[in-house]
Design a protein that fits this description.
Elements: H1 3-34, H2 39-42, H3 53-79, H4 84-88, H5 96-108, H6 110-121, H7 127-143, H8 149-183, H9 186-199, H10 207-224, H11 227-247, H12 250-259, H13 270-295
Helix pairs in contact: 1-3, 1-8, 3-8, 5-10, 5-11, 5-13, 6-10, 6-13, 8-9, 8-11, 9-10, 10-11
């Protein structure tokens, strides 16, 4: 590869990393200065809700915008000011049939994602780290508690819409595309971007499932060449989790969460994984065919 392209790749990767770092540090500084990092305000136990949950919801949205949406926007302004929509592959909305097939592709991948969670459970995680992750999840559940439809809509914005757009712009729109162009190996780019996607969530207990989800999103982007597809899949996955918390009774939900702990995971049947692989293959071919026909 010509040296000027290698230099451009290094410059762009360095820039997006710097922008993300600045965004994360800025949101953390705001949290500290505002005083909302205080354990008494956040809540310290499983059943203790934060004293200002509404502010915390706003902060979650704010921090995600600073850490992902704005870095992606400024990256586009710096390197692709006149072709930002074209670079991110968001200038055209996909056909509804392709969008529907992509959502089915996501659902068909769930047995494999579940299997990756089983594999994750075999990796030892320190008791302190496990306790920290468990407390973080409990805190998030308390913050995102829902009593009426308005809470559901707000949580869908915070947990589904904003992360779907911001994370897909960064990990698929920037990182996956840059890696694919630099090494000319799209599948390798999908894997690396997905590893980074999972790592940045800082949840060792669910590293493999998040990586598998990232691979699913990245492969859909690769198949369709349209970032709206991976954004839709990401939104659908997150929205299903939020809606399930809203509609499932709290005691039943706590039982489901307990059953999904690594030590209590039920093995995914081998035949479910085989069916999943077969479905994913045929769905991939069908999506590719639909995309090719769209471009004819």
């Amino acid at each position: 590869m010509p040296s000027f392209l290698v230099h451009r790749f290094s410059k762009q990767i360095g820039t997006i990393i710097l922008l993300i770092f600045i965004g994360i540090m800025a949101s953390g500084l705001f949290m500290f200065i505002s005083g909302f990092a205080n354990p008494e305000i956040l809540g310290t136990s499983r059943n203790e809700a934060p004293s200002n949950a509404q502010f915390m919801k706003l902060y979650l949205a704010f921090s995600h915008c600073l850490g992902f949406l704005l870095p992606a926007y400024f990256f586009g302004l710096i390197f692709y000011p006149n072709t930002i929509k074209s670079f991110y592959k968001i200038e055209k909305y996909p056909l509804s049939i392709i969008a529907a097939l992509s959502c089915i592709f996501l659902f068909a991948s769930y047995p494999i994602i579940g299997f990756s969670a089983e594999i994750n459970s075999y990796f030892p995680i320190g008791a302190e780290l496990k306790s920290m992750e468990s407390h973080s999840l409990d805190l998030l559940q308390n913050i995102l508690g829902m009593n009426h439809l308005g809470d559901l809509l707000i949580n869908l914005i915070i947990i589904a819409i904003i992360p779907a757009i911001g994370e897909e712009l960064i990990f698929r729109g920037v990182i996956q595309q840059l890696l694919s162009k630099r090494f000319n190996k799209p599948i390798l780019a999908i894997w690396i971007a997905s590893i980074l996607f999972s790592a940045l969530h800082l949840q060792a207990g669910s590293f493999f499932p998040k990586m598998a989800l990232g691979i699913c999103f990245g492969y859909l982007f690769y198949l369709t060449g349209n970032l709206w597809i991976s954004i839709l899949a990401h939104f659908t996955n997150n929205a299903l989790q939020v809606i399930s918390i809203y509609v499932v009774p709290k005691d039943m939900l706590e039982s489901m969460i307990e059953n999904n702990n690594p030590e209590n995971l039920q093995l995914i049947p081998w035949w479910a994984i085989i069916i999943s692989i077969i479905l994913l293959y045929f769905l991939s071919e069908l999506i590719k065919k639909m995309v090719n026909e769209e471009h004819v």
